[in-house]
Amino acid sequence: MSAQQAEDFGPWLGRQLRRASKSQAELAQHLDLTRAAVSAWITGRAEPREEVKRRIAEFLGIDVASLHNRTADVVARLPLEWHHRPAHADGGREYGNAAAFAFNADLAVLAREATQNSLDERHDPSKPVRVHYTLHELSGAHLDSFLDALQWDKLRPHYDKAASAEQKVSRSLRAALDDLDQSRSLLLLRVDDYNAAGLTGPEYSDGRFAAVVRRQLDSHKQAGKRAGGSYGLGKVTLWATSRFGLVLMNSTLSIPHEGRTERRIIGRLDLPWRSVDETAYAGPAWFGEPDTTPSHKGVSRSWWADEETVQGLHLERSNTDAGTSFLIVGAHDASGDAESLEEMHEKLVRSLADGFWAAMIGGDRAGALLEARVTTLRNGRVLVPEQQVNPHVHHPALSRALKAYLDNETVTERTAGDQVASVEVPLFVTPLKGESRGQGKGAEHSAVLLLTRAEGEERTNRVVCMRGNRMTVMDRRPRDLPLGTEAFQAVLLAGHATENEGEDVDLAEQFLRASEPPEHHKWDRTEELTSLYQRGALSRIKEFLEEIDKAVRDLVGRREVGHRGGPSVLKELLKLDGAAGGRRAQGVPTVRSINAQLDDSGAWHVSVDLKLPKADDPWLLTPVAKFDVRSGGRPAIDWSLLTAADNCEVENGNLVIPPGTRSASFIGVTDPASHPVRSRLSRLVVDVQKTRGGAA
User: Fold this and answer.
1) Rounded to whole angstroms, how far apart are CA atoms 395 and 39?
2) What are all long-range contacts of 275-278, with beta carbons under 8 Å and residues at least 24 apart?
3) CB of 495 within 8 A of CB of 468?
4) Which of 434, 490, 626, 672 could hold 685 in an S-S bridge, CB 3.0 to 4.6 Å?
5) Among 568, 687, 571, which Cα is nearest to 626's?
6) Is-contact 109 237, C-beta < 8 A?
7) How sure is the predictor about 295, in pLDDT bands with cuts at 50, 70 and 90?
8) Element (H, E) at 244
9) Which of 406, 445, 405, 407 is nearest to 421 (CA)?
10) pLDDT tens across 418-468, in order?
11) 557: pLDDT confidence band, cut at 50, 70 and 90?
């Protein structure tokens, strides 16, 4: 971090007079000058001579060097206080922040949204953003000290009143207060980022600070065309993860404000409407110094804190690199699948790995964009040691694929297991409304599909789609995979995630971002897509997804492994009503896709997708597994597991498919104990028959 820069003389002098409760007229009288002369200095129209500056320093009670440096305030600190927004004059009430309901109060969602915001604000593009998540449980004297620093005694009446209503947010607040009173413990979650821009800009006007602290739905992303977010909603997950709707912030700025960069502190509280001591309050409140400007007098604004205050609020940062620390007070995971500190620690690690493994990979074409780590403390002592998220541990095949691409080591066709195949996938970008359509479907962008062998991951045969700063948008299973497909992992890079440059890259990035909902979890119809782009935009998105599936099918091919070379492939045969081969009559269910794998125990894992004609009655079908052995008849074998996947139920070994259903899928696992021969010496036949005595 560079040395502090002197603030412009006029704004600095005006603020010092207000902080010292001195007027321009008093300064003019002390200097034996007109008030107009002082006003000209403050507005920046003129600057006093050196001998006059010495007399100004005398008036303010400071040395001349401090006046020339202008990196500190005359009155170093005003009393901190909470400012609660007064109720609306028109009687309107908000019983909570509606934006908070756009996301679940889930640690995985928080990790995704907060880390993406950090990535979007990367300061030095030659270095990765570093994020650090710290869980810290406080109790006893540690809790009391923190609550005192937070002025909890002044906040508690507002919480009690806000929790007394019958709305959803009020009930949640009541439960949080009860838990705090009974357990006398509080969980903090601090999210630190380094090599990010920090909360730069003025207190109330346009800038990063106001967008995060003062406003809703203000994205104010300045990362150019690579930003992942676009709605300005992601920041609300910080407050949604707090049971008390309370977040404190400590920012080190990449651009000085008021001549300073370090320890810009502010707190924001989101509560429902409430009435305390016969005064009504609208909802939000801010913790800071009272503003002394006439236009915002009494409003709590950010302040430049000392080290002791920062430590008391648990907002200390490890170095002076630009970025921000967000402290979530009363952190929780509303999903219910992470209750203990150890479970929450593990969920954060897993969520960071799942959402940002690609951003943590570097190579010859581009370096890593992100480093992430998680630490858990209890009353200042380490409970779970710092753990750096390693993408190669959590997603080895995907990481290997992207690493090969960034190192220019991909192939066009795989001939060995660990190789990574690469193929281009076309995306046509529909013109914006008002632009000339020209010829064809629009500008063509070449996305990149990478595919490699899976390495024992739980979820295989998936395509992870991403754009921007390698932001994972969705994880989808391709349709109509060839029979006997070897387990694979695939990555689809679009827009700036390809690390290519060009107009088509920019157009594709904007087009795909417009097709994403606030959760940024799919490419589909959105209001922005249909309102900004010409007719056909949604069709281009659907065609792109189809091209992705086609590219996967072309890469995996239809591979068969001989009896002596490895497991037999699943035979492409699905019988209905005992009819094998030949042309199926209309109105009969047909197979959309079949996928199978042979595990180490010899059990076949079968996934079958069915396409069904429209019917007024339910379909009742019985899946039967048989071995197509080298000689003799086809002996039936038992299922150890038969379960419904989509649009059906399993009852007594039969599939029950509701009327009107056009597609269904089920999963089966055979019982090796019932196999008459070794699985590797046979082919498997799945015969789906109409259930005897059932309607169809």
Assistant:
1) 63
2) 275/87, 275/161, 276/157, 276/158, 276/161, 277/157
3) yes
4) 626
5) 687
6) yes
7) confident
8) strand 242-252
9) 405
10) 899 999 999 999 999 988 876 678 899 999 999 999 987 778 899 999 999
11) confident
Q: Strands 636-637 and 488-493, how do they pair?
A: unpaired
DSSP letter assigned to residue 537: H
What the block records as the tokens of 683 is 């082919």
Mean pLDDT is highest, among 182-191, 559-568, 643-652, for 182-191
pLDDT digit string, tens, across residues 321-332: 999 999 999 999
Alpha-helical runs (H) found in 494-625: 503-514, 527-532, 537-556
DSSP state of 469: T
- What is the DSSP-derived secondary structure letter of residue 180? H
Q: By the 8 A CB rule, do 610 and 680 touch? A: no
Distances in Å between the Cα of 380 and the Cα atoms of 135, 136, 143, 306, 311 are 10, 7, 11, 20, 11
Give the SS3 label for residue 690.
strand
- 576, burial (CB in 10 Å: exposed 0-12, middle 13-18, buried 19+): buried
Query: What tokens does 206 get?
Result: 């346009």
Q: In this structure, what token pair is assigned to residue 659? A: 């009327």
Question: Distance (Å, rounded) from C-alpha 84 to C-alpha 210?
Answer: 17
Q: For residue 528, what are its two tokens?
A: 């922005």
Is 0.85 surpassed by the pTM of this model? no
d(CA 95, CA 380) in angstroms, rounded, equals: 36
Of the candidates 235, 298, 295, which has an alpha carbon nearest to the alpha carbon of residue 85?
A: 298
